[in-house]
From TrEMBL:
Residues 39-203 form the Uracil-DNA glycosylase-like domain. This is Type-4 uracil-DNA glycosylase. The lineage of its organism: Bacteria, Bacillati, Actinomycetota, Actinomycetes, Pseudonocardiales. It comes from Amycolatopsis vastitatis. SMART domains: UDG, UreE_C. Belongs to the uracil-DNA glycosylase (UDG) superfamily. Type 4 (UDGa) family. It comes from the Bacteria. Transmembrane segments: none annotated. Keywords: 4Fe-4S, DNA damage, DNA repair, Hydrolase, Iron, Iron-sulfur, Metal-binding. GO terms for molecular function: 4 iron, 4 sulfur cluster binding; deaminated base DNA N-glycosylase activity; metal ion binding.
Length: 210
């Protein structure tokens, strides 16, 4: 059962302390089945903070964000768009893997996090934003976008364009661009076209910094 243990981030901008505290978070039920908390990674000096949905199977085992197939695609797209991943801070809206088992109980199948999990995890994302103070927040997919921009935000209407953050997070999100999640590119019927549009969104996001 979720409980309040470790659910509140400590009042610090030290990412190592935040990571360590998040490892004991019981703020939603996902901690029970996941291997570990997958906290964000990257430099506290990052000008761009990237937010995904939640760790997948590979990330859950490795304890690092975006190291599986979606991460590989993301790395390639970052490179093509002129971003060096080492200069970024990369995290997720939800920091535990949510999954169900297949019928044979073997494979772990990704489940989209619900609003309760997104809301429970949001204080950690806000704590990361407070620690990094990025110039731009790049939101990958609707879960990430809605976590910061609110549940009414429609990615299809605003992808690739600068959007204003709501007042409650405006000081932490000076500028935001949302695009699709890299997994959606992997699943797209025309993957090349979806990939090109994704890279174009990343380039457009990068231009807002200059
Ligand atoms: N998908 C995400 O949203 N985040 C990860 O870390 C991996 C896959």
């Amino acid at each position: 059962m979720p409980d309040s243990r470790g659910a509140e981030p400590p009042d610090t901008t030290d990412l190592d302390r935040l990571r360590s505290a998040a490892s004991g978070c019981h703020g939603c039920a996902l901690y029970q089945d996941a291997t570990q908390t997958v906290f964000g990674e990257g430099t506290p000096e990052a000008k761009i903070l990237v937010v995904g949905e939640q760790p997948g199977d590979k990330e859950d085992l490795a304890g690092e964000p975006f190291v599986g197939p979606a991460g590989k695609l993301l790395d390639r797209a970052f490179e093509e768009a002129g971003f060096d991943r080492r200069s970024l801070y990369v995290t997720n809206a939800v920091k535990h893997f949510k999954f169900k088992r297949d019928e044979r109980g073997k494979r772990r199948i990704h489940q989209k996090p619900g609003r309760t999990e997104v809301v429970a995890c949001r204080p950690w994302l806000l704590a990361e934003l407070r620690a990094v103070r990025p110039d731009l927040v790049l939101l990958l997919g609707a879960t990430a976008a809605q976590s910061l921009l609110g549940p009414k935000f429609r990615l299809t209407a605003h992808r690739g364009e600068p959007v204003d953050a709501p007042d409650d997070v405006a000081d932490l999100v000076p500028s935001a661009v949302a695009t699709v999640h890299p997994s959606a590119v992997l699943r797209a019927p025309d993957r090349d076209e979806a990939y090109a549009a994704f890279v174009a969104d990343l380039k457009a996001a990068g231009k807002t910094l200059k």
